[in-house]
Amino acid sequence: MSIFQDAILRFGRTIMSYAGDAVFLQAAVSSAANVIVADGDVAEEEIESAIAGIRANPILEKSYDTLRVEQELYEAIARAKTRAGRLENLRLVGAIAERPIDQRQDVFLIGADVADFDGISAVEHKALDEIAAALQVDKAALLR
Amino acid sequence: MSASRRQILLSGGAGLIGVASGLARPGLSRAADRPILTHGLQSGDVGTDSAVVWARSDRPARAVIEWATTESFSDIRGGVFADALPETDGTVKVALTGLPAGQDVFYRVRLQDIAAPTIVGQAQVGRFRTAPADRRSVSFCWSGDTAGQGWGIDEARGGMTIYSAILKNRPDFFIHSGDTIYADGPIQSEVKLPDGSLWRNRVTEEVAKPAETLAEFRGRHKYNLTDRNVLAMNAAVPILAQWDDHEVTNNWWPGEPLTRAEHLKKKYADPNVLALQLRAAKAFHEYMPMRFEPSEPGRVYRRIGYGPLVDVFMLDMRSYRGPNGENRQTEYGPESYFLGPQQLAWLKRALLASRATWKVIAADMPLGLVVTYDTDRNFGSEAVAQGDGPPLGRELEIADLLRFIKSAGIRNTVWLTADVHYTAAHYYDPNKAQVQDFDPFWEFVSGPLHAGTFGPNALDNTFGPQLRFVKAPEKGQVNLSPAAGYQFFGHVAVDGATEQLTVTLKDAADTDLWHVTLDPARA
Q: Could you tell me if B267 and B198 are in contact, meaning their C-beta atoms sit under 8 angstroms apart?
């Protein structure tokens, strides 16, 4: 079970009303993208993990078809190829910093799932640190 | 069953032949009874550890396909059965897997008659080279347009000789850029040439009229596979095939009503292209040595990884396009689809994930050349371009793709295409374009392989194409026969040491017309 799916069960949360929420989608794909690109390579498995993680969110799953998720994810990955793009992605992640904690945790965990695909490397930890800071979430607690 | 399929296969051809020859060694020859491989062998979609091989039987038969790394087959490494049945017109395709990288692989196909299992046909042998796992040099050729405009196989003129020229180059693979057949072009027995001589086509029943039935579409593919040059190349060079329009009919788009003047001349019985498309696609996939994509049966677009130096992205610019019209939409939507959103997303993802030095985008149509849709009315766009100016219509999709390639830092993309029946080299320069948000890139145009020669077409300045080379007929000359010498293919060599990519544009005589060497951009 992925970290994200596990969190939904552990917290027993009801996902609330961010249907059709483009800001939330951008935060999710940007979080995943910065982790995907962290080690300098874009692996097919990481892309699959990101899409699966985003699709596992019931509201995003209902709001956006896979094609739209893919389109936004690939644009986010493209941005993440440059430092300026990664900063832009972090800004998009931080755009939900004022939102309820469950939304912020979801976005963090989508990135964490990508990082966790083959063990979390040092550069991926660094990317997750930045994402956690932007979201104001407790990284260590969420990865436990 | 006394021996498992695996045991039989691993025991190799010798075991199988032993059984067969032991039973089939009568006093009278059974040669006339043996199942026959009717149209040679083909291989395709070759990678580092797999390839597709193709054969066709003249009757229901089990094809036994073995592979080895020696031509003597002294080391048979594996094999597989596949059944050649009427449902697929006797064709079989199998993927050989677990192949060694960077290795010459020989494959042997024999047919076992299903009605008389003791009767085994004469084997045929083909070869291909798997993609290297290391950075060794690779080369390949590309072109398109086979047996078009009524120019078929004239035995006295040597047939489709350009295929022998390609074989002479010993490429690792050959990209057929589309128009693998001309389903809608009747091939007559004789055509008078400007010099008064006759072009004498070999003719079969199926090629004498525009294809409409499944048998007629299949017949077109079979026709090309009777040419000795084609057969020789197919047996030695794997093919990466894509389709364009003439696998179905000229300049079609999905859902097109068959009401244009040229449709009326062709006397199609179907009111819509869909029925033709379905039959044509079935025949195309039966006869092309392509991988099967279970998530979308019939998919043509795909990535072929050919080692660390080359990834080939085979596009399908036909199946997902919107209607051929004026092509002047100002916003992207179904009317301006060309690759379509799904294929575009796939391409972006595949490019992002590519680790190859060179990303070769094999397109069935050029990006910057204006191609008219309905020539009877001089109306509409058949390709991407419609004329100078900012991106409109289908150009919106291409502009988005080019922007993405730049923003994602995807380096070393090269576009290869055919379609327009002449050869050219285009350098797309953002400094001379109507939009600047892309990195410069090359597009190389080749073809026809064996069809009428036309052109040159007008360049559209939207993406700033600069004509660096062209060889096309003189003004006023159209539909030159293959005898005129204007048949073209391209050769690409990637040097393993320098990773430089050299493109050479060639003609059917294997003459080097023009070449350019590109240095790879580094991260």
A: no
